[in-house]
Amino acid sequence: MTIADRTRTLLDHALAGxxxxxxxxxxxxxxxxxxxxVWSGAVGTLDGRAGGPAADDDTQYRMGxxxxxxVGVCVLRLRDAGRLDLADRFDAHVPGSSLGAVTVEQLLxxxxxxxxxxxGPWWERTPGDGWDAxxxxxxxxxxxxxFRAGRRFHYSNVGFAALGRLLEVAHGTGWADVVxxxxxxxxxxxRTTTRPSGRAAPGLAxxxxxxxxxxxxxxxxxxxxxxxxxxxxxxxxxxWAAFLGGDTAGLLSTETLEEMCEPHHVVDEVGQPWTGAxxxxxxxxxxxxxxxxxxxxxxxxxxxxxRVRLDGGDGVVTLANTTSTTVMRGLADRLLGVLHDEEPAxxxxxxxxxxxxxxxxxxxxHWGPSVTTARSxxxxxxxxxxxxxxxxxxxxxxxxxxxxxxxxxxxxxxxxVRRADGTVSHLDLASFRFTxxxxxxxADVPGGVDDLGWT
Length: 455
Description:
Residues 12-334 form the Beta-lactamase-related domain. The protein is α+β, with helices and mostly antiparallel strands. Helices cover 22% and strands 23% of the residues.
């Protein structure tokens, strides 16, 4: 896809404005549509000084917590291979730790109550210790839980250190080797590494009240590395955005990716409406009725962001070498807004794609006195309006057998009940009767229908 010159000008201007307003040494960003990087831009110099080396879309920045999404996908690949269950206790795979009772799913969704940070010095600015020093059974103050597992969302960097250790035990090699061989290499993400390599931005802090800089330390996080170690570029991170948008190159099934992006626990900020939640390794948002997934990242000297619209796959990635600034929070939305306003997503023309064998099921049905409509849409039978009340899509799983795909009826069985002559009598949806007329006495309505009928 080629975007218009006017759109590029507006995007470049938005990026430059954010760099100046936020006093960011350098910032790079990219937009993804249809699985491709359709725009990228970079502003500033890597050292934050006039005449310094300019940033570009092949400059490495530390992605921070976006690292967790790679770890999460590798854990789900283990699940899909039958090597673990999300309900497994952690100690079923990594015995002898202080986190043994927490489940794999609770670690992935930050709902295990595990403490957010380590007991030691600020782990993001100091070299990391090994797993045994973090959560081993023999440690004087091992990492533990702050809350009862399953009670609430509580973001935990330590929890993803545990998942990284799970990958190491399961594969018999380092977590980064697992990520590299299972994801980075197959996706062609050759510029994503555990330490800076080639052209890379230094981590910098900008003084809040003066235009001066302070270098931030760079190190190996040890056991905590799975929580935020990886470095990447706009080009590479855009490939990961395309992955989240559905272009998984066969590395993860569509069903598993959708499962990972389901909101498992809301992010409950006191006094604020619920707009964010956490899935399995991915953050998810509901903004004005539009669902997004992705993740943010921050380490001393760096800020990063990845956000993808789940309704079409448009995505944005941002990378900057500054410890703190508020403008990065709105930059992703601003860039996506320009793309959507100036370059509306193409509209696929309607074509007749249904089959006539569902005609006997479409039309008006009644659940008691309430009225609903069944439609044939592609390969699915749609009862009501998905997203409204109990409206759902249903997929065929056998002769006259269907299963719900949405909302209240997700996973619930729908059975077409026929008369002796083969014509359709009624629908049985998880024991509820749907009849062609309200409370049809000939449709075996549970509880029966009063002999006097409607009066």
